[in-house]
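2 proteins. here.
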Amino acid sequence: MANATLVVGGLIGLGLAIPIVGSLLPEAGGNKGSWAPLSADEFKTLESATNKPIKLDFTLKSKDSYLPEQSSGEYVWGIKVDKAKFDAARTDLPKAGTLPYFDGSYDIVTMNFVILSPICPHLGCRPIWSDDANRFQCPCHGSQFSLDGEHLAGPAPRGMDPLPFKEQSGAAEIMWIRYQTSIPDRVIISYTS
């Protein structure tokens, strides 16, 4: 009787253990980024940009390995740049002009545009563009950045972080990347907000 109880208990335990352990394993590709499209109006606004950044709103869709897909409103800063001037100003970026992401690397300057993350590399606040000061200013700890995202003042350890941007078949798309704050290197934490 004792042995039969152990066998039945073991079978029940095994029957429960397999789906429990399976649910703890993340789905393949759950942590990879996804491209978020800009509306045609937003892309036209970006194309007409001249000497100040354009705030681009978009819907960020993300899927955690354990949760269903979620959508949230996000924004980035789009700027029109001269590649040579941008490369000269942003000495904190690689000379090759590319940064890594989950699917390889991306060009920082695409079609003469750079998309900047709205997250301050100091502690994660959101710098805002000041027309009066002609620079990005972080309201939390006073970091300041030029139009190109170059670090000018304050405690931020690096300039503003560029994000992947591409144009395909007439549609512009952005990939969201969250970098680790408070360090000089760009270390990717996640592809969700």
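next one coming up
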Amino acid sequence: MKVVLRSIISSLLFLLYPYLVYRGVQEGIVWFAPVIIASLYLFQAVQAKSSRLRFKNLDIVFLLLLGSVFYQDIMAKLMPIFIQLSLMNFFGKTLFEGRGPSLVERFASLDFPDIPPAVSRYCRYVTMMWTGFFAFNVAACIVLALFAPVSWWALYTGVMIFLLSGVLMVGEYIGRHLFFRTIELPDKQIPGVKDSIRSMMINGRSIWLDVRAS
């Protein structure tokens, strides 16, 4: 129960981070948001069982605390860049030879015991699409952090990224069903949204940890 509660609190703070930075700029306390997130990473570093993960989290803590003192306006805006870079790496590294199957195929395997070659290729293309989307977000976050008002940056990182992600999810879901029809995959083998979400909730964490450790 404590683990779930900590996960919920952490997720809420990350979701609210752009707003906290925006308010911090308005109130003259830009350091507040980076310090809050740094405390979360410090806690994760202490709890981490892997030395690699521990030092990775400590590096982020150092950068956040450094940013809370120097170049506050710019450094406070780095967190969404870190997140999008991490997601880009998380999806993208499964596309390299010897790192497969692709991330989307790993999740698809929760619904399909034996994935046909055509579905495997489709999963690879979807993984490439998400990798490209996160790469675009990295570029957009950098440009907005350097050249745009903080309100624009907060709007994109706190709202638009999630809206665009939703559009991609819906578009991919529709495209998936259209594609499955072209390979004559029986409808009964196409999992519904509820079934897919249930499978991801039950088994998704193991896939996440496996890819993260690779």
